[in-house]
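Consider a typical record:
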Amino acid sequence: MTVTIGGETFGYDGYRVLEPEVTFDIYTKTAHDFVADFDTAYPVTRESYLLTPGADTETTVVKIVGQDPGPTLYVAAGIHGDERAAWYAGLMLQNATIKAGTLYVLAPANAWGAQRNQRRVGEDDPNRCFPGSETGTMAQRICYAIFHDIEEKQPELLLDLHEAIVYKEGRDFLGSTLIYTSLEGMEDLFFDLLFATQEGEVTSCPFGYNGPGPWGSMNRTVTDQLKIPAITVETFRGFPMERRVSDQLKVVAYVLRYKGML
């Protein structure tokens, strides 16, 4: 069975689009293999720290500081562990360099799910568990740690990297989409990015937009409770992995350039 979305045809099982096989070793690739914006090796300081250390959900945040002063951005990649292009891109970003400002990169946000190619943490969807609980389920504990790390770092913007695969006729389809909860504080950036994707300047296909983020999601909770603007980037899992990773990295690079960090 096949389905046609946006003029392209994909394998389809009646519920979700069939994801192509990955044809390369992600751990041999770097951000500049996909996006020329990352070709320059700027001098940076780099350090890392763990969230939920010693637990099954343990994962790593890398802090990258450029030589010049600038804004702080936070990238959280792959809170759904089976959305591989999101956290693949995040792992590459952890080794990237920037000219100015500070970049925090959490990848994979859902390490437990990434290890199992699974969306959830245990029985819970972690992107419905924010702001989490320090003493709750595994999902609630990792969400608590992520939420409070973002709160502590106080970035100008959160980029929340995701993917979409479910497609049902008559319902919203989130593939190739930018999601926001509030545009306050990022109006120009959001629409400039959106129009750049639609004019073919950034991504491999035009992106749409949607909002607000669902209750309990990282996007909505960080926006509503911390008043930090957030953009969720949804690539489409029907495309080849190379294309999806490239689109994720191109969106991040666009934002970094926009903020004067590249």
